[in-house]
Amino acid sequence: MSGHSKWSKIKGAKGAADQKRGKIFQRLSKEIYMAAKNSGPDPSSNPSLRLMIDKAKAANMPNDNITRAIKKATSAGEGENYEEVTYEGYGPNGVAVLVHALTDNRNRTATNIRVAFNKNGGSLGESGSVSYMFDRKGYIAIEREDLDVDEDTMLMSVLEAGGEELQTSDEVFEIYTDPADFDAVSEALKAEGYVLAEAEVTMVPQTLSSIAADKETQFRTMLEKLEDDDDVSEVFHNADLDDEE
Length: 245
Description:
The protein is α+β, with helices and mostly antiparallel strands. Helices cover 42% and strands 21% of the residues. It is built from eight helices and eight strands, in the order ααααββαββαββαβαβ. The protein has helices at 7-15, 21-39, 47-58, 63-74, 106-118, 151-161, 182-191, 213-228, and strands at residues 83-90, 96-103, 123-124, 134-143, 165-168, 172-177, 198-205, 232-237. Strands 3-1-2-8 form a four-stranded antiparallel β-sheet. Strands 5-6-4-7 form a four-stranded antiparallel β-sheet, covered by helices on one side. It is globular and about 50 Å long. It starts with 6 loop residues before the first helix and ends in an 8-residue tail after the last strand. 31% of the residues are buried. Residues 82-239 form the TACO1/YebC-like second and third domain. It is found in: Cytoplasm. This is Probable transcriptional regulatory protein SAMN04488507_1003172. It holds the Pfam family TACO1_YebC_N. Residues 1-21 are annotated as: Disordered.
């Protein structure tokens, strides 16, 4: 995990957000639906739902969309029946890839994901084939622009809040937590007045894997095809890319 920054990937994703707003809202609606269905419709007692609502608001998703997704999850006999499915596989040069999906049709989703892998130098693997290469972590990013806080002060705040690790660059403080502590750490940092540019529970690669220059374009195409699929919610990998634009 050390030395691996998620921030460049996040900035690239945000830059393309406007072009994919409708698809983003669709995915967020699914995730809000699942969070409310699994653990209840009250965000004050459902941290997963609260996190998804925060992500939706950060994406400027209308409140009506959020409310509608929660109502679908709590209306007996109504709404879609989504399943959470994880696919594991390899990209070019054997880089590890994890794909999280929310689907109402496993056959459709599995076929689309298999095609995205196979047509771009990759292959699907068995369950457990690459997941051991990733750790589930809470991730928080705080941008440093206009923030008069040095690294030592931020580290003290992170440790007092219960965070595990702080990585610092010129642009951002990146904080990692145990997933069980993520909600408490986020709330503690917000209570100190910090603005969280990003906050999520995610999968962090334990080590990065190099990819040959002549395979990098192919791998990026594979990632794009996976991320563009309506059923795919998140894609994680351990490729050591210069940037994530």
